[in-house]
Amino acid sequence: MSAPVTPPRAVLAVDTSTLHESVAVVVAGEVRAERLVHHSRGHGPGVLDDIHGCLEAAQLTLADVDALVAGLGPGSFTGLRIALATLKGLALATGKPLYGARTTQALIAALPGARVLALIDARRSEVYADGADLAAPWVGAPDALVARLPAGPPLVCLGSGARVYAARIRAARPDVIIPTDPALHVPRAAHLLTAVDWARVPPLGTLEPVYVRKSDAEINYPDGFPDVMGGLSNG
Question: DSSP assignment of 52-95, as one string?
Fold first, then answer.
């Protein structure tokens, strides 16, 4: 049996899969600096500023960082690509290794040892779900999901989906625990590190967001987005 791989000493982690942007600098397993910013209209140019601010607060520069970690979702189709694209650019520019981990795993890591079901609001009265007894990330109605999960240790639901659909979840499964502490429902980038396979540095080209369902564009235009100018010229 091979010995566990020691994580890099200094790690910069970023997650933008939800409305909460999370940036963290972890040194020797301890969170040296962290920023949690709520963006009601989505993420954008502030990510690089927050990365710089976190590194500055940790008294480090990008050259001092040994590895990068991006949250891969599931979550907002546009939002979850921002962290990955930003860190891919930094990895290419600096030669630092880039790892990825599911955002839902960061929620699960908030309560180690508990039977946690991570639920991220997917809109359309649905959630992205992961953890508990699921073999893979899933999308669908939260009440239908919790109702069919097997009995066992207490089930704790965390994430924006747990808060938005709390009434529906409790109606379907009264024994479910939904903590009142809002901090537990926000994925922290520092917690991504618990789900990283440090033994293998993935090629940059293989790191992609976790898409659990098709985007609106794929649903509305299954044959590709129409050529507006071409359509006008043929009219």
Answer: HHHHHHTT--GGG--EEEEE--SS-TTHHHHHHHHHHHHHHHH-
